Amino acid sequence: MRIVILGAGFGGLELTTRLSAEFGEALDITLIDRSDGFVFGFAKLDVMFGRTPAAAVHHPYADIVKPGVRFVRSAVRSIDPEQRRVVTDDGTFDADIMVVALGADLDPAATPGLVEAGHEFYSEAGAFALQPVLDSFPGGHVVIAVTSTPFKCPPAPSETALLMHDFLTRRQIRDRSTISLVMPLPRPIPPSPDTSAVLLEVFAERGIDWHPSRTLTQIVPDRKVAQLDDGAELPFDLLLAVPRHRVPQVVAESGLAEDGWIPVDYTLRTRFPDVFAVGDVTSVGTPKAGVFAEGQATVVAEQIIARVRGQAADQEYDGHGVCYLEFGDGRIGKVDITFPYGGTPAGRLIGPSAELFADKKEFGTDRVARWFGRG
After folding, report:
1. Which residue in 95, 130, 153, 165 could disulfide with 4, CB within 3.0 to 4.6 Å?
2. DSSP of 139-167, one letter per residue?
3. Contact at 8 Å (CB) between 120 and 151?
């Protein structure tokens, strides 16, 4: 059976690993991604704030050596979900089962002035490029702002604000700087009231200005102000933005997407037979974050395992995930959260504490070992 997986993020890597472990050479698995390696989302902040070098967080896809798996580094040019056919720069691939895990693309140019006068920190390139910018920043008004919804990893802007506070404090320029956080949400983590309450308390303690239920609409470069959707303006010397997210163009052109993203049920099936979708590219109802893509991939793996064995598959995605959130000052929290299908999401905060750093490290090392075969 030919399995073609588009995208080697959390979802693609987890699915590939599970299917290879279950069937080995009995399946023909092709994993396609345009990048040469994988970087955990949280590692981008480590590089951005100078805590680790970029090379240390890059995991080459060339290290993927698994029975039945072939990795193809190539750009996907077209997807035919009816025929389950994919055209790439390196040839055409036909599938018996196709899984689309191409994530969300970032579009900084969609926000006027952002490319000219601001910095996006959600892409690998954007976050890494900020490291020397932050090192040379003399202090001033820092604005961290979200431009639209949905956006990946909802805790990340709050985390960035707290780590910025620590960074400026270490450089002894916090007293001549301000930090403003602009988010479209009414609370930092709406499904987890206790997490939001702790974050708001910490914002107040550290003098971080919180601007809820607002988005960044444009930047005026010559005046160095950020304009918000309510007409307010924030002056800035350094602006870090979460750019607009959109479905990859190749997905939009395929007919898979509706209202911007790929609709799936809680078995992660699309409306096309034997075509699944997982992760940020979907509108499944959970936040766009790697841990949720991984959980969705486990469900797709069970669906495919049952299909190969001629069994009924009844596993559905439960919407559960765990996200780590650095509070700065050497503490980290863990948000345990569930987005039930058709129900009300609910989450709870574990920590924050210094001890949870080991837990977060184990989260990363476990996946590197399973996905890439090394510690």
Report:
1. 95
2. --EEEEEE-SSS-B-TTHHHHHHHHHHHH
3. no
| Helix 290-309 / helix 10-23 crossing angle, nearest 10 deg | 30
| DSSP secondary structure letter of residue 110 | G
pLDDT digits (tens, 9 = 90+) for 116-126: 999 999 999 99
The CA distance from 268 to 14, in Å, is 15
Of 82, 31, 13, which Cα lies nearest the Cα of 296?
13
Helix (H/G/I), strand (E/B), else coil: 368: helix
Per-residue DSSP letters for 17-72?
HHHHHHHGGGSEEEEEESSSEE--HHHHHHHHTTSS-GGGG-EEGGG---TTEEEE
CA dihedral of 199, 200, 201, 203, whole degrees rounded to 10: 90
13-63 pLDDT, tens digit per residue, is 999 999 999 999 999 999 999 999 999 999 999 999 999 999 999 999 999
CA distance 373 to 10: 15
pLDDT tens-digit readout, 204-218: 999 999 999 999 999
Percent helix, percent strand, percent coil in the chain, to nearest 5:
35, 30, 35
Identical fold at 2-104+247-309 and 107-245?
yes
Rounded (10°) CA dihedral 102, 108, 109, 112: 150
Model pLDDT for residues 315-327, shown as the tens digit of each residue: 899 999 999 999 9
CA-based nearest residue to 106, from 161, 71, 156: 156
How far CA 191 is from CA of 36, 216, 343, in Å, comes to 35, 23, 12
Q: What percent of the chain has pLDDT over 70?
A: 100
Domain ranges in the chain? 2-104+247-309, 107-245
φ/ψ bin of 207: left (φ > 0), alpha (ψ from -120 to 50), beta (otherwise): left
pLDDT for the residue numbered 91: 96
Q: Provide the 8-state DSSP code for 189.
A: S
CATH tag, 107-245: 3.50.50.60
